[in-house]
Amino acid sequence: MEALEIARWQFGITTVYHFLMVPLTIGLGLLVAGMQTMWHRTGQEQYLRMTKFWGKLFLINFILGVATGLVQEFQFGMAWSEYSRFVGDVFGAPLAMEALLAFFVESTFLGLWIFGWGRLPKLIHLLCLWAAVLASVFSAYFILVANSWMQHPVGVEMVDGRPVMVDAWAVFTNNTALVAFPHSVFGALAVAGAFLLGISWYHLWKRRFDGLDTVGADGRVVVGDDTAAARSRDAVDHGVWLRSARAGAVVAMIAFAGTAITGDLQGKLMFDQQPMKMAAAEAACHDGTGFSILSVGNLGAQSCDDITAVIEVPGVLSFLANGDFTTEVKGVNTLLPEYQEKYGTTLPDDPIYGERAGSEIDYLPVMEVTYWGFRIMIGFGAIAAAAAGAALWVLRRGTVPASRGLMRLAVVGILAPFGANSAGWIFTEMGRQPFVVAPNPDPSGVDSVFMFTAAAVSPGVSLAELVVSLIALTGVYAVLLVVEVRLLVTYVRGGVASAMPELSHDAADGEGAGDTGRKDDGDVLAFAY
Prior knowledge:
Strand content: 5-15%
Distance between the termini: 45 Å
Largest sheet: 2 strands, antiparallel
């Protein structure tokens, strides 16, 4: 192993881990803001309980996301200093905007929301949450602006071997970013929808398991209560989970449709901007129009000599690329000579490449990753959407089946959109190799602006240092994963009472202390805890 490989593994592990939190933070934040808006408009107890419960889970995920995200910034300087020098003039503006929104607007207004229950006017309190949530959405946009420039450089000119931004508007309105942004937001909503659905299904099942809810002769739910045990085990509690489950299912289905539409637009851009990435995603060795549902062969051999499409749908690949069913799409064997002619067959003889200088450039991404990553992304997304549709049909009777197996399937199903999001990002980033900044082949673009990944790593960082940091960060992140999962599981099992202690049995007897929404509460930090 070389320092470059370890640095890539480290960045990949920490980034994918961090991105597990990001879509849930964005998607769940939007839904919690919607719940509080409904409570503000209607005054219904159900919406208040929904806001408190889902808001608690949102906060747990948010703080772990902040903790894991901080590492990303340090890696730019420590492991990828040459990359930072190359993109610094361009990345300065979008990352500065992201920092202002993420660290100032989000933190300020989220703090006001956490500690403002019963102390701020209801409308102001609600607007604080919307400000924090929308700031996180815009923060994501600025991150995507930076990432999209790596995929499709625009608005710069080369000065002394470095890209210098000459058109900020072109950078911030990069067509790659304009398509990636809604695609990512819909992906985040898909995660949040499945999260609501799976957890709500568990609680509806638990109410049936505990004998609170039964099913009448007409097949519809008969809602019961057990307020002697806890004030939260009443008919309102049933409404919390039923509305949350239905909302989650609807959001998940709409989000999948949104990701499909924006994903199609993104795919068409990729065929123009990074044709090798899309050819590798389809294991399309030869020019053609067919979409491979299943190809067999040695995808890891980094050649097309042993790959055969077993199941192929004619015309679909052309539609994905060009919007018609007849135009042939270039395959790997056609693209390789074009790349070699444009960008060279060997790495330049430059000290920045170290021992890799003069070595042959492999322009074909790892097809095992691109081919299966593309299909996992689509497959998990479709499975989540189909499951949401089925769940919405089941929920028409006001509850869920008493089957423990279905309940476990619903909970495990929460992971499907997480898998789709992660697979999509892995495909996007690894499909760009061997470039860390991909060239822009568009006639109006700047094709000369690109950077090989081999040139991006810090020259002064040794293999041993990177191995130590990789092990340390992976260990810390593993501990943080255990912390987050344990916290989430604890509060999920506790139900609404875990976020509203005043609804617990002890509080009903006058023994509990918690955030009741009154200004004379004993502990201002109760909701934050």
